[in-house]
Amino acid sequence: MRCFIAIDLPAEIRNELAEIQNKLPKDSKLIFVNPENIHLTIKFLGEIDDAKTSKVKEILKKFQFKQFKAKLSGIGVFPSTSFIRVIWVGIEPKENFVKIHSLIDKLTSLENIKIDLNWENHATLARVKFIKDKKAFQEQLKKIKINPIEFTVDNLKLKKSTLTPDGPVYEDILEIKMV
Fold first, then answer.
1. Residues known to be catalytic
2. C-alpha dist (Å) from residue 13 to 36, 105, 136, 140
3. What beta strand segments (E) does the chain contain?
4. 0.85 exceeded by pTM
5. What is the mean pLDDT of the chain?
6. Percentage of the chain with pLDDT > 70?
7. Domain that holds residue 39
8. In total, how many domains does the chain have?
9. What is the CATH number of the domain that holds 7?
């Protein structure tokens, strides 16, 4: 099954991200992430079998991290400004998410699950299929103001992702509450 480890975002944050989606440039072809599905991916595991899924569950059950306050930060793109394929919003404090990611990366690498070398904490808003005017597009993105709403990060989830013609469907396999 196709799996990933993520932090779910509260409804208030997803609503704010939906508002930001409405401000994205209209003259390009964008495929928006359903606001109900917006999350912070900590580690994409890819296709893993039931045995490896069980191992990941065991690893996550040992996970201990204190809950903390976070907030939305700037808007960004992947992989670069010259080749935009994803539009995202960052979440701070980056250091806390990097610590969580590094710990999960270390623990899952023991099970021969690949390490994410270029991981960046972000919530994906849209995938880009076509940009009419790249320079104008980037200027429009710069004008979008991010409301730095604060929220509590208090969970970590193992999720299953099923790809469908209408977009991915996510199912929680395991939830770990942070203390």
1. 39, 122
2. 10, 26, 27, 22
3. 2-8, 29-32, 39-47, 68-80, 83-92, 122-130, 150-153, 155-164, 167-177
4. yes
5. 91
6. 98
7. 2-177
8. 1
9. 3.90.1140.10
